[in-house]
């Protein structure tokens, strides 16, 4: 291979070789955060922290992860915030179509099934979102539906999702499900559930870097949806 | 496949009022298959100190024997038992000797010093010591244990309450980890006595 220059800095080669360069774009980003939902006899609690992060940086200290869909239903989503936003918009628009077509608000169970179908429609390029749907069912009892990113769903009594889910879930098993302990209590009051929720998040904030800043709690009862906000550690 | 997750296991230690407790699960597995349900991961180092060794099982056994040797040699040379803080540094140096080909364990140490003050600490696989004042966790179940301990622990628990707290933390945490569980053993160390109890837990 012979190399000659015309002026300093420029190099001309007489037999250039081309090598393929692979360009990649990773479509997913993990914005972190933790959410949980607990169902009661006649209420449902949906709580999520409000920190949005990207790697080791914090994008914002207050970006709510939960959205009120109707007076009976609240959805909370963690994972890729962009996907969560779009998915929320799709759900809200579908609910509006339903309202006009049927003359009534979608029930929690109907929204639950619709969300599952919406998620599976993107089975081969999924929404990177961990959804938890909380609300009241047609009998007025608390309902929690949990999803994986491609739409597998199940009704449960309580669930947490997100970055600190492995920290909080065993605590919920112990306190809400009374696992590994002798207990004849089967129902918890709203106050007890709220205390367990707050304790879960303060503990998660201590040990998980993606959880913190503020905690927003949506309480769904027959009277409607009430929102509480409390501070979490900001470090 | 991660080497630290090949055999599975969980260890936790907590500080109480003039006492410490250390607990471990009893599972030994080869990835998904459970081989033994009597593989305890805590070992008595001195009459008042225990070491917990979760991680790769072959290294758990080898290091348990190495530390038994080193503690015995210390006792022969110094004519006294090794203090927990010194044992922590001994463990740390032993692990750092293998900095570029490490032992795949993350030990936990719990004991009372000569003034019967509680002491716990944990190290990573290359010997960085974490001197905690409240609790330490290690093993494949560490995330779940962090969540449980952070919520359930409070300072100055009496030995009986400390036993309940550490037992609940371990049992509920390992129930959310498929590589740990199949029984649990809890040791509570007080100035007067050491009580080791086996927990009745889910066998799956």
From TrEMBL, chain A:
This is Proteasome subunit beta. It is found in: Cytoplasm; Nucleus. Its main location: cytoplasm. Belongs to the peptidase T1B family. The 26S proteasome consists of a 20S proteasome core and two 19S regulatory subunits. The 20S proteasome core is composed of 28 subunits that are arranged in four stacked rings, resulting in a barrel-shaped structure. The two end rings are each formed by seven alpha subunits, and the two central rings are each formed by seven beta subunits. The catalytic chamber with the active sites is on the inside of the barrel. Signal peptide: none annotated. The gene is PSMB1. CDD domains: proteasome_beta_type_1. The keyword Nucleus applies. GO terms for biological process: proteolysis involved in protein catabolic process. Keywords: Cytoplasm, Nucleus, Proteasome. The lineage of its organism: Eukaryota, Fungi, Fungi incertae sedis, Mucoromycota, Mortierellomycotina. Component of the proteasome, a multicatalytic proteinase complex which is characterized by its ability to cleave peptides with Arg, Phe, Tyr, Leu, and Glu adjacent to the leaving group at neutral or slightly basic pH. The proteasome has an ATP-dependent proteolytic activity. Coiled coil: none annotated. GO terms for cellular component: cytoplasm; nucleus; proteasome core complex, beta-subunit complex.
Automatic annotation (TrEMBL), chain B:
InterPro entries: Ntn_hydrolases_N, Proteasome_beta_3, Proteasome_bsu_CS, Proteasome_sua/b, Proteasome_suB-type. One of its GO terms (molecular function) is endopeptidase activator activity. PROSITE patterns: PROTEASOME_BETA_1, PROTEASOME_BETA_2. Coiled coil: none annotated. Its main location: cytoplasm. Component of the proteasome complex. Component of the proteasome, a multicatalytic proteinase complex which is characterized by its ability to cleave peptides with Arg, Phe, Tyr, Leu, and Glu adjacent to the leaving group at neutral or slightly basic pH. The proteasome has an ATP-dependent proteolytic activity. This is Proteasome subunit beta. It comes from Podila verticillata NRRL 6337.
